[in-house]
Design goal:
Shape: globular
Order of helices and strands: HHHEEEHHEHH
Distance between the termini: 35 Å
Strand order of the largest sheet: 1-2-4-3
Helix content: 25-40%
Structural class: alpha+beta
Largest sheet: 4 strands, mixed
Number of strands: 4
Number of helices: 7
Length: 153
């Protein structure tokens, strides 16, 4: 339910889309209790091959896993979305991956073209891949990326 709510919220900007089609769009294999970097990597590789998406590597986790951002759109309104800052909280990772998948489907070209010149989206599906692997809110160095960010800056 949370996954569907996140997807619907992401698309509230688009007036030409009803909530039902995207709320029903789910990539197979992500509807499980724990999502890891290994689960997402092949799906994200496929999505990044689409000409509407630009992938940039932001760096690596302590354990050497890639942390990537996916850009779609070129509008003046900039929106950054991320998930799994706490590795054991993965609902939004699935929702963001579902959204990217939905956005690049051929049948949704007109819908995507309707908002691409209005919005610039930066999507980071997994901020803490080490925490996801360990199924903990902390990264591999024991840092809570959310609560400890100020202390480490």
């Amino acid at each position: 339910m949370i996954r569907k709510t996140i997807l619907v919220s992401l698309l509230s900007y688009s007036f030409s889309l009803t909530a039902a089609p995207i709320a029903m769009h789910q990539i197979k294999g992500l509807n499980k209790a724990a999502i890891t970097h290994a689960d997402l990597a092949p799906l994200l590789d496929t999505l990044a091959a689409h000409p509407s998406i630009e992938r940039k590597n932001l760096g690596q986790s302590f354990l050497g896993k890639s942390i990537d951002a996916f850009y779609i759109g070129s509008g003046p309104i900039k929106v950054m979305m991320w998930s799994q800052m706490h590795g054991d909280e993965n609902t939004a990772s699935a929702a963001l991956t579902d959204f990217l998948s939905y956005a690049i489907e051929t049948k949704n070209d007109a819908w995507r073209e309707n908002w691409q010149n209005k919005l610039s989206l930066m999507i980071i599906p997994m901020v803490n891949p080490d925490g996801a692997q360990l199924q903990t809110r902390f990264n591999a160095q024991g840092i809570d990326l959310n609560r400890d960010a100020k202390a480490w800056s």
